[in-house]
Amino acid sequence: MGRGTLRIYLGAAPGVGKTYAMLAEGHRRTERGTDCVVAFVEHHGRPRTEVLLHGLEQVPRGRLEYRGAVFEEMDVDAVLRRAPVVALVDELAHTNVPGSRNAKRWQDVEELLAAGIDVVSTVNIQHLESLGDVVESITGVRQRETVPDEVVRRADQIELVDMSPQALRRRMAHGNIYAPDKVDAALSNYFRPGNLTALRELALLWVADRVDEYLNEYRSEHRVSAIWGSRERIVVGLTGGPEGRTLIRRAARLAEKGAGGEVMAVYIARSDGLTSASPKELAVQRTLVEDLGGTFHHVVGDDIPAALLDFARGVNATQIVLGSSRRKAWQYVFGPGVGATVARDSGPDLDVHIVTHEEVAKGRGLPVARGGRLGRARILWGWAVGLAGPVVLALGLNTAGLGLANDMLLFLAVTVAAALLGGLLPALASAAFGSLLLNYFYTPPLHRLTVADPKNIVAIAIFFGVGMSVASVVDLAARRTDQAARLRAESEILSFLAGNVLRGETSLEELLERVRETFAMESAALLERESDVAPWTCAGRAGFGPPLERPEDADVDMPVGDHMALALTGRVLPAADRRVLAAFAAQAAVVLERRRLQEEADQARALAEGNRIRTALLAAVSHDLRTPLAGIKAAVSSLRSDDVAWSEEDRAELLKGIEEGADRLDHLVGNLLDMSRLQTGTVTPLIREIDVDEVVPMALGGVPEDSVGLDVPETLPMVAVDPGLLERSVANLVENAVKYSPPGRRVLVAASAIADRVEVRVVDRGPGVPDEAKERIFEPFQRYGDAPRGAGVGLGLAVARGFAEAMGGTLTAEDTPGGGLTMVLSLCAAGPRPEPLPAGEFRTEPERHTI
């Protein structure tokens, strides 16, 4: 079964009649014999809409309970079981009640379409996701229910349901949309004439764009190349010259005269990269055309008139705006010019406007070949061969007498050698000089610059032509080689940038250093400012002496958006290098933005973690700290009461309760303070060498007697730790183990040496912890399983791990063989255990300082 079709009635505003039109369509299809059902329609108490529901089969709705109320939603399963040909579904942007099959109704519609059911639905223009901000700025109301634009764009049919603002307000006043008690508020707020007019314009423009997409798809599918003047599209041909601004403004005025006019500025660059256009001027013109509501396009083409016409026909343009030629009169010998050629080849369906400007006939430079493509040494050798070679050859041939044909071939060989070495100019010089020598020394009459035999004139002309041809081919090959090398270098650089974008590895400073090295500059800096009048600030720099005040002070500045620029000092870059520089500048802006987003994310993460800890701390204070306080308060109040004569045993029991509550408070507050020190990074351990068997027994003072067994050999190496932090860590581990150990089962504290580490293991026989929770139990305010609230605030293990890591150790959890949990505290050994000293001698410990 294929996918169903979707038809949408798009409303310009609430109340224009979308649901009415959908139900009317349902009646038409039913009358034609189509199996059509109402999957979900909300009439909102409008009598005319409710009447149209009669005569149509309605699928029972699903009922969902949420927060004590019962809501009705479309029952997707019921519609799928019914399997109609057409289903009517109102309010495509509706948000379903929590607990529904899908979060949004358009997702329900997608299921129906996937099942092969045709759907007719409705939606208002203000519910399109991309228009949310625009609608809010117009009406002052933020739409909470939205539908992605792509869902509506994929519809097979879209029909606009429209109504003039005056007619819609009359419908509102007559009570056909809202209840009478809501009419006045609606007319004075959302349904103001200005709001309705703006929403109507939004709907018309959106539908017009969709129609334009349909038209382009149709033209592409049917290969229609002729221009259909459905609306005015004006193409502006730019050369990069100063007249471009005049052309853009003129085109904008032409577009304003027609409804829905569109301006598209296009710059056509040669494929070999040779251009006389100013990058700065093109950037200014691009900004201008975008400010006027148009678009800018960059096209590559060697035949500029053909490329311009192909672009215009490709976008279905109706007019082309060109500037009068800047060439002088003598330059027309090279051809009629772009304007005349475009006007001649445009055909009857494309109008061409030639606009005059201040630069007309002021001259236009032709592309000039860059020097240095063959290398300075090679060019010098070419000039030497081209000028000295004919002289040396002439001196040698005066004595040999090989004949005119052989003499010309030898002179031609010298010209070819000059072309292979030095390119065009040395070869031309060699051909001209060789022709003169041939004519003077070897062509009758000898030693005169005249030629008696016309055949010799032809031979000399062929000789000169061959020399020029070879020289041109060599020069062209050199240009292509240079261009290939440049493109390869550019591709490597762009590949590097693309890789960094994907991996996110390069920092801003590293990227600027790469820019400085790539273009052999002295310094590189990324400058930015908040507004057009704000001062420039430096976001990052590399090299010595970068411009920090204004981009204009640099030798090269590349704008990035409106308030950012990449500034370089050292030399002026040629135009061809600015393409890669623009890529670097864009990447620098991306890296800067990524760094700031990362900083904001880190700050947000730190704030979130702090908020989580503060929230947990408040929860702990609200219960776990108040419980012992309440016990102490009750015991003290009982002892101070004169109404009861307490026996000595009762008084001792109450005092014991007070002492236990105070100890518990002291322990809780101590852990809270320790956790606070760890979170703020103020724990500074005082590391010194000490025996484990001196610290571990001291950590068992807070647990019941006979609840812990020790196995700490005296032969263990000393450990480099802070004794106080180690004692606190072991005490927390032992207390946690005793808390979860079953009655009658002792906790074992054992220590052993492994390589350069000393491990302290706290082993219990409690319920244990699953593998997926072994890391979570070390997080602050975590209590595993169904531990009661009185079991503490869940900081003991977090504090123990924090102290262990502060001393350079680790704390992990393992399963106890046979059941239970083993905490492994791994510490750094201080070195081999020292040999015992003879009686009466003492070992002095060097003084240590904590920095």
Automatic annotation (TrEMBL):
Segments passing through the bilayer: 380-397, 409-437, 457-478
Region Disordered: start-end pairs: 832-851
Top-level class of the enzyme under EC nomenclature: transferase
Histidine kinase domain location: 620-831
Catalytic activity, reaction form: ATP + protein L-histidine = ADP + protein N-phospho-L-histidine
E.C. number(s) listed in UniProt: 2.7.13.3
Biased composition, class Basic and acidic residues, residue ranges: 842-851
Subcellular location: Cell membrane; Membrane
Name this polypeptide is given: histidine kinase
Topology term for the membrane: Multi-pass membrane protein
Principal cellular location given in the protein's record: membrane
Cited PANTHER family: SENSOR PROTEIN KDPD
Single GO term (MF): ATP binding
Native species: Streptomyces eurythermus
Pfam families attached to this UniProt entry: DUF4118, HATPase_c, HisKA, KdpD, Usp
InterPro entries xref list: HATPase_C_sf, HATPase_dom, His_kinase_dom, HisK_dim/P_dom, HisK_dim/P_sf, Histidine_kinase_KdpD, KdpD_sf, KdpD_TM
Keyword presence, Repeat: no
SUPFAM superfamilies cross-referenced by the UniProt entry: Adenine nucleotide alpha hydrolases-like (SSF52402), ATPase domain of HSP90 chaperone/DNA topoisomerase II/histidine kinase (SSF55874), Homodimeric domain of signal transducing histidine kinase (SSF47384)
Keyword field: ATP-binding, Kinase, Membrane, Nucleotide-binding, Phosphoprotein, Transferase, Transmembrane, Transmembrane helix, Two-component regulatory system
